[in-house]
Amino acid sequence: MQKITFEEVYSNEYIRQSIAVIVDRQTRAFPILATYANDLEQELWIHVSKALRRFSSDGSASLESYVRMVLDRRIHNVVKKYFSVSSINTFNADSIDSTEALAIYGKDEIALRNLRMDLKAVLTRLTPKQRLVCKWIMHGETFADIAERLKLSESSFYYLYIYPIREVFKSEKLEKYLNFH
Fold first, then answer.
1. Domain ranges, ordered by start, for the chain
2. 119-172 confidence digits (pLDDT tens)
3. Which letter does DSSP use for residue 117 in this model?
4. E strands, the chain, in order
5. Residue partners of 33: CB distance under 8 A and separation at least 6
6. CA distance linking residue 20 with residue 30, whole number of Å
7. Which of 7, 19, 30, 139 has a Cα-to-Cα distance from 36 of 20 to 30 A?
8. What pLDDT does residue 88 have?
């Protein structure tokens, strides 16, 4: 049985692309994690490194399949690690003025202050229902789930909520926060 080294795995283009795709998918599903994309990637590489001890090149799975299985199993635990109570409340209008630091957006107080001002500018222009939709999106709900919850077709949901919310972000020149589809 031949031992696979971490360097061999790290240099495997398929595995590198798999990790990039998984991180991208998670940051799109949870836009609040976008600032932690590099950390998510590093955590996944750590899990891959630890899992290599259990990989057998004589087994029925290829290295790529084995690593992909490890990644698919571990990403949910890695994502949970970066959520905090304060980050979940980011899109609640009441918490924007809070002096409590939002850990998910880092330690830079100036960036945090700018984020609060940006979000406050947008939130004041949204209806209560639109703010609620933003909150659900930040919690990771899919557009299909939200549309179903609102008893709307997906196209109606886009027309009535997503497009108007995007327009408010764009009018405030805050497209950088539009990481959702």
1. 6-83, 86-177
2. 777 788 889 999 888 888 877 788 888 999 999 998 999 999 989 988 888 887
3. H
4. none
5. 26, 27, 40, 79, 82, 83, 104
6. 15
7. 7
8. 46
